[in-house]
Amino acid sequence: MTESAVREFKMPDVGEGLTEAEILKWYVQPGDTVTDGQIVCEVETAKAAVELPIPYDGVVRELHFPEGTTVDVGTSIIAVAVGGGAADAPAREAAPEPAQAPAPAATAPAEEKKPEGRQPVLVGYGVATSSTRRRPRKAQDAPADPARQAAAAVQAEMNGHGPVTRERPLAKPPVRKLAKDLGVDLTTVVPSGPDGVITREDVHAAVAPAPAPEAAPAAEAPTPAPAAPAAPVSYDTARETRVPVKGVRKATAAAMVGSAFTAPHVTEFVTVDVTRTMKLVEELKQDKEFAGLRVNPLLLIAKALLVAIKRNPDVNASWDEAAQEIVVKHYVNLGIAAATPRGLIVPNIKDAHAKTLPQLAESLGELVSTAREGKTSPAAMQGGTVTITNVGVFGVDTGTPILNPGESAILAVGAIKAQPWVHKGKVKPRQVTTLALSFDHRLVDGELGSKVLADVAAILEQPKRLLTWA
């Protein structure tokens, strides 16, 4: 095995602009045989835990970092010895056949050997050099910009020339997930990114001719310190335990501090009788339309918030500091705060406003189960517009939630308890909860915030308003 046959697999950017990731677990050891697409390790970024596949076949030579180490994006983490034949294949393809005479002038020249350079960063493939094999060009082929090639292919179809065969478009997994969620065929999208990579903006642009609304900015992790030779670990002294702040907890802390001291928070509260809502929850559990789905109060609270946003659309907005503009979103990506062993995360349900109640129940169930398994993808936490945090599951009555960065409002739901309540002129035990709505006072004034909170409370008190107000 020659030195040139050893491939270095580098830490990829697995979450759109992240600078580092922690190696949680290795699934292979030196001497193990790996195949293209095999999961070799699990890493944790500031947003989620992600499994990384190796992009080639071979034998593991070396693991460069132990579990628990934080590694910068672009740093080699594993060395794999690939087969000699596979390593030499590109050179053999490029070489002319000995028996062939020189090609006539009309024949296209042989494909030039492209210099090694930085390629688009794709999940599981790291920052690789240009060593991949491509099909030999036909005589009519000519070098072209990837974006122009894609644009020409799309235009050909629009002009009625029939389907055009195209190679698999380049896009990061979060962008592919976004395209799937929005029903966009990536082969019809004109890329604007470097080397023909399709971006989130390209996908949004393919949905409607108007520019797509800006996604809520993600929380940026602080500039990382130089990586230590060994991973920091929790340790005890005689009177205290110190736990390193990293990964999701580190990003959450930075995001919350940034949000609290950037957006002027206002919180309003209302206590409401939700007895009828609780009865409706029990009825829906028996409905065949919800068979196999998880039905709980959070489902109807989420639907109530969506209806309130429909009645008061200006609350679903973000503040663009650079442009000094309020960006009103015409879609709702509903965030659900989830406590996980790695810290608080806020994945969101894309286009929640367009879902039926059974569809919303299914999406909530998937979101919660994925979060509990620690498998929430970075894409699932991007682009949220409004959030719900259910502190009631901990027996807490209410709180003053901090806005998720880039969002205008967050609704906290307290514990639902049997309490004495005046109902039809008499004091009776009723199911009661307290709601708290925090909002960004730069773009949501007291009147608008009060209307939204009052609408949510009114729906939960009389859930039939889901029909009359929807």
Tell me about this structure.
The structure is a single chain. The chain is built from ten helices and 23 strands. The protein has helices at 84-94, 146-158, 173-182, 200-207, 247-260, 275-285, 297-311, 357-372, 446-461, 465-468, and strands spanning 6-10, 20-26, 33-34, 39-44, 49-53, 58-63, 70-72, 76-81, 170-171, 197-198, 235-236, 241-242, 265-273, 317-320, 325-328, 334-336, 338-340, 343-345, 348-349, 386-390, 409-413, 417-423, 426-440. The strands form seven sheets. Strands 13, 16, 19, 20, 21, 22 and 23 form a seven-stranded mixed beta sheet that branches. Helix 3 packs parallel to helix 4 (200-207) and helix 7 (297-311) crosses helix 9 (446-461). The protein is globular and about 85 Å long.
Mean pLDDT: 76
Instruction: Describe the oligomeric state of these chains in a short phrase.
Output: single chain
Strand content: 15-25%
Pick out the low-confidence regions: 85-148, 150-166, 209-232
Distance between the first and last residues' Cα: 67 Å
- The percent range for helix content is 25-40%
Rg of Cα set: 27 Å
Q: What is the molecular shape?
A: globular
Number of strands: 23
Major sheet size, sense and barrel closure: 7 strands, mixed
Number of helices: 10
Structural class: alpha+beta
Question: Key terms for this structure?
Answer:
470 residues, alpha+beta, four-stranded antiparallel sheet, globular
